[in-house]
TrEMBL record:
Superkingdom of this protein's organism: Eukaryota
This protein's record includes keyword Repressor: no
InterPro entries membership: AB_hydrolase_fold, Peptidase_S10
Keywords annotated in UniProt: Signal
SUPFAM superfamilies documented for this protein: alpha/beta-Hydrolases
First and last residue of the signal peptide: 1-24
Name used for this protein in its record: Uncharacterized protein
Record-stated family: Belongs to the peptidase S10 family.
Species this protein is from: Pisum sativum (Garden pea)
Biological processes per GO annotation: proteolysis; secondary metabolic process
Amino acid sequence: MMGWRCSCVIIVTLMMLLPFIVSSGSIVNNLPGFDGQLPFNLQTGYIGVGEGQKVKIFYYFVESQRNPLIDPILLWLVGGPGCSGLSAFFFENGPLVMDGDYNENLPKLKLNPYGWTHMLNMIYIDMPVGTGFSYSETQEGYYSSDTLWVDHAYSFLQKWFIDHSNFSSNPFYIGGGSYSGITTGPLVQKVYEGYKERHMPHINIKGYVLASPAVDTYQYYNTRVLYAYHMSLIPKELYESLEENCKGDYVNIDPDNTKCVSDYEAYYELVHYINEQNILEPVCMTTPAVNQVIQQPVQDDQELQCRSYYHILVNTWANDENVRKALHIREGTKGDFLRCNKTLGYTKNLPSVVDYYHNLTNANIQALIYSSDLDMVVPQMGTQEWIRSFNMSIHDKWRAWFVEGQVAGYTKIYKMKEDHYLTYVTVKGAGHVAQTFKPKEVYNMIKRWFSFSLI
């Protein structure tokens, strides 16, 4: 009798939860531009957050192609702020990449041999509101900030794990690149505190991953001058003069300090035409005229010469009516899709989150932070500086790491507490962010790190 009564309770409970379990997502079997059925499980959907749940956050969930009910889940945040999850899905670590070739005026899609979904469950979200396909039911809801991003992301995760309770025991990680470094630290801390206090739903947080992270706005802007000197973009004499006249501060320049102003103008003139994303690649213009050219079918003997031109293609693809139907986009909720929406009503109210990452060195989590040596947007020396400020003990000294017998970069491992470590990695020959430029190398790095962090 007791067993029968318990079974009834379980059945009633599941029936009560059923509307929530199936409410947010829709299965995507096919995508325009890809031949045949998708060889991986893709789900898209909206989750309401904020006051009255009137902010609707759009997400893409790709199950691991290995063992989804056991493999880790990685929530991947894209920077900007205002860059869609589709940007990472196609150009960073997703299961598909976008080809320059067209199929009936749409770019062709092909499998990414270095997609992280070979070993991870990946969640991509259009965050903050107004990004990608995320929208608000009210005009007021479109105003956002760093702190609201964190609050909305936490609310999103709570509801996502209620909807996907079969993944509640999977190891969970939060990651992101570029500007999302500002929001990742506070979000990890919020999720970890909920984990320690046994909040429901259970989110089994195990660590975080950062790629070329903006963590301190002043610092990453300021270290660009030092980076330019180290990479021989400016001469030693100018760098020494800048140091003397500007006192090492290239952000808050006093307009009355004529020597500093003059030196900084000389510096700016030398680096102004450098591609900060990757100092070895050309600067490419993305004017309306260029956009029009790129949105025409590419001939077999042509090749898109600039990486940013491929970014334009995702706008063409995502604005196609058939694509929106395939992704289950709600009609009338979004006008033109932009890979990166630069018109957000967004307030940057967390200028530095170094303290959050310092606090996390006392948590029972693993950390991976990696930089690119050709990245001038968030120079690696700035990232190394704030990591060193934590005064952690060294577990593994600076050394080379290899892929297929070649040096792929350098790494150093710090001990945080007990068996938890912060791994810092540089990726040789990469730009902002590394997996866009060196997908094979970063794929191998990620695979090794997750194998290590789950021990």
